[in-house]
Q: What sequence folds into this?
C-alpha cells in the first residue's frame, strides 16, 4: 500500500525512521511528488514519473534546505514539463 498524505513540515519532522530501510510518503496534491525517508534520518524530496515507458525518479532537494512548499512548487513545474512530453532528467 502506498503511503499518501498532504505533506507538510510536521509530517516530515514526525516521520518515523525504519532501521535499514528507506521509504517514501507520497503527496496527495501533486502526482508523483514524495519525500523519501532514509534509514540515516535524511529526508529528500523526489518526483516519480514515466517517460517513454520507463519509470524515472528525480531528486528535487533535501529537507530542511528545501521547504515542503518550495519543493511542491518545483514538483508542479516538473509535472507540467512531464505532461508536455519532456523528460526533466535528460
A:
Amino acid at each position: 500500500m502506498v503511503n499518501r498524505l498532504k505533506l507538510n513540515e510536521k509530517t516530515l519532522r514526525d516521520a518515523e525512521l525504519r532501521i535499514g530501510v528507506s521509504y517514501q510518503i507520497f503527496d496527495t496534491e501533486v502526482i508523483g511528488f514524495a519525500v523519501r525517508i532514509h534509514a540515516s534520518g535524511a529526508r529528500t524530496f523526489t518526483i516519480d514519473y514515466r517517460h517513454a515507458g520507463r519509470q524515472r525518479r528525480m531528486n528535487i532537494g533535501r529537507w530542511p534546505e528545501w521547504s515542503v512548499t518550495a519543493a511542491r512548487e518545483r514538483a508542479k513545474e516538473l509535472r507540467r514539463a512531464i505532461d508536455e512530453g519532456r523528460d526533466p532528467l535528460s
In short: The beta strands are 4-5, 23-27, 33-37, 43-51, 54-63. The chain has two helices and five strands. The first strand starts at residue 4 and ends at 5. Helices lie at 9-14, 68-83.
